[in-house]
Specification:
Elements: H1 7-10, H2 16-29, E1 35-36, H3 48-59, H4 72-86, E2 95-98, H5 100-112, E3 118-123, H6 128-135, E4 139-144, H7 155-160, E5 166-172, H8 184-197, E6 200-204, H9 225-230, E7 231-236, E8 249-252, H10 255-268, H11 274-285, H12 289-310, E9 316-317, E10 325-329, E11 337-338, E12 341-342, H13 346-357, E13 359-360, E14 362-363, E15 372-376, H14 381-396
Parallel strand pairs: 1-13, 3-4, 3-5, 5-6, 6-7
Antiparallel strand pairs: 2-8, 7-8, 9-10, 10-15, 11-12, 14-15
Helix pairs in contact: 3-11, 4-11, 5-10, 12-14
The protein binds 4'-deoxy-4'-aminopyridoxal-5'-phosphate and glutamic acid.
The site of glutamic acid has 9 residues, from helix 2.
């Protein structure tokens, strides 16, 4: 038998955001002054009290294996946290703590999909979702929305995507890459659809704390008891507490699903990092002021981005209401050239911008947003101003 790579792995496209991060770091190591608007991670340091809790955990010897699904006090703290925030009532046994929202998302899909099952995927969406669905044996069924619709799908489009193979709908609010925030009416329509067709709902709410201009985050699980029972909510610490590198996330849901995800995790990775778990406990139970401070900074940066994008001829964007991304439409620039290189699509735009102006952005295509680029504004205000100055200069130099 020849040694070949499996069909599952042959078909995976590696994460473009993480690849871009690596390229940016390489270029920085060469001494180039790159401004990174690519991979989205808060530039803020993890708050001091959280770091101190991790140091204490090390000193207290909490450096051994823990329960595979997370230490009981952290599972309880997550349940208490969502109860305090949204009045939702979960038992600690309905909470799974894993190695990042990424891992628990894959586990949720593995727990509910059989080969060939379909997942309705409103898009533009985070580029990892279609890969994760395929890794779990499923098929993404993409429902596209446009800037003109505020990047929200219509209830009818969701309904039309249901087939006899549909098992789940995967939503993300606030959304990466559009910044769209689902309103209660749309959540209700998606929830009713799921009840009608007996579907799971996976609701990725990792950007839940980052909503702006009076927009409100409504958790899918709060829509009603029948929706609550079938919703697997995904969230974590990466965005709200600036803890991307600690690799911790959680899922909430029905006990049988959480148990199945936990069983998988117990073989795949075992427990998430013990020290990070104690840091995460402090994050949820300690002073929450830094969460609001960071939200305010992101809101200010979003306003700055909108003002600066508004000043660049030929590009446009729908104002995001949440997360820390702007999807900038570059359709009018396609067909123009930079120093003899034709911009045939968003990939080429991204490459030329990085090479000539040292600004990294992510092309829209893998997010199902062709002829757009995603800009992360999770960087300092002065860097935003300089990056947008370089982008404006680049656009101005197109012929
Ligand atoms: N969901 C979305 C929508 C994301 O953008 C990301 C990227 N950080 C994740 C999940 C994964 O987050 P984590 O760092 O917790 O794995
Ligand atoms: N989720 C962030 C992004 O979309 C971080 C990178 C990643 O994990 O994809 O940029």
């Amino acid at each position: 038998m020849s040694r070949t790579i499996s069909a599952v792995c042959r078909n995976i496209t590696p994460s473009a955001t993480l690849r871009l991060n690596a390229i940016v770091n390489e270029k920085r190591a060469q001494g180039l002054d790159i401004i990174g608007m690519g991979a989205g991670e808060p530039d803020f340091p993890t708050p001091d009290a959280i770091c101190a809790a991790a140091k204490q955990a090390i000193d207290a010897g909490k450096t051994k294996y823990t329960a595979a699904s997370g230490v009981p006090e952290l599972r309880k703290a997550v349940a208490d946290h969502v109860n305090r925030l949204y009045g939702l009532s979960y038992q600690p046994s309905q909470v799974l703590v894993g190695t990042g929202a990424k891992q628990v998302l894959v586990e949720a899909l593995v727990a509910i999909l059989d080969p060939g099952d379909e997942v309705i995927l409103p898009a533009p969406c985070w580029l990892s979702y279609p890969e994760m669905i395929r890794m779990a044996g499923g098929l993404p069924r993409v429902v596209l929305s446009t800037a003109a619709d505020g990047f929200l799908p219509t209830a009818k489009a969701l309904q039309d995507a249901v087939t006899p193979r549909t098992r789940a709908i995967l939503i993300n609010t606030p959304n990466n890459p559009t910044g769209a925030v689902w309103n209660e009416e749309l959540l209700r329509a998606a929830g009713e659809l799921a009840v009608q067709h007996d579907l799971y709902i996976i609701s990725d709410e990792i950007y839940e704390t980052l909503v702006f201009s009076g927009a409100r985050h409504v958790p899918m699980a709060s829509i009603g008891p029948e929706v609550f029972a079938r919703t697997i909510t995904i969230s974590g610490w990466s965005k709200a507490y600036a803890m991307t590198g600690w690799r911790l996330g959680y899922a909430l849901g029905a006990k049988d699903v959480i148990d199945a995800m936990g069983a998988y995790q117990s073989h795949a990775t075992g427990n998430p990092n013990s020290i990070a778990q104690y840091a995460a406990l402090e994050a949820l139970t300690g002073d929450q002021r830094s969460v609001e401070d960071m939200r305010l900074a992101f809101e200010r940066r979003r306003d700055l981005m909108l003002k600066l994008i508004g000043g660049i001829p030929g590009v446009s964007c729908a104002p995001p209401q949440g997360a820390f991304y702007v999807l900038m439409n570059i359709q009018n620039l396609v067909g123009k050239s930079y120093k003899g290189h034709e911009i045939t699509n968003d990939d080429v735009f991204t490459e030329l911008l990085l090479e000539h102006k040292l600004v990294s952005v992510v092309s829209g295509a893998p997010f199902y947003a062709p002829n757009c680029v995603r800009l992360s504004y999770a960087i300092a205000d002065d860097k935003i101003v300089e990056a947008m100055r370089r982008i404006a200069e680049f656009v101005d130099e197109l012929t």
